[in-house]
Amino acid sequence: MENLLFLISVIKTITKKMFFITTIFAIILVFVNKSFSQNGCPNADFSFQDFTNWQGFTGTYGACCPTPGIVAGRHTIMNVPGTDANTGNLLSLLPPGLSVGARLGNSSVGAEAEKLRYEMVVDASNALFFYRYAVVLEDPAHSSAEQPKFDINVIASSSVGLCGEYHVVSGGSIPGFQTYGGVRWKDWTTVGIDLTPYMGQTIAIEYTTYDCAQSGHYGYAYLACDCSPLAINVGYCQGNLQAVLQAPPGFTYLWSPGGATTQSISINNPTIGTTYTCVLTAPNGCSVTLSTVLDQTEIHANFNPVIDNCTFNVNFYDSSTVSQGTIGTWNWTFGDGSSTAEQSPFHTFPGPGTYNVHLDVTTTAGNCPADTTIQITINPIPVANAGPDVSICSQSSQLQAIPSIGTGSWSYTGPGIATISDVNIPNPTVSVDTDGQYFFVWTEDSGSGCLSRDTAIYNLYELPIS
Question: Among residues 72, 256, 324, 408, which one has the fewest Cβ atoms lying within 10 Å of its Cβ?
Answer without folding.
Answer: 72
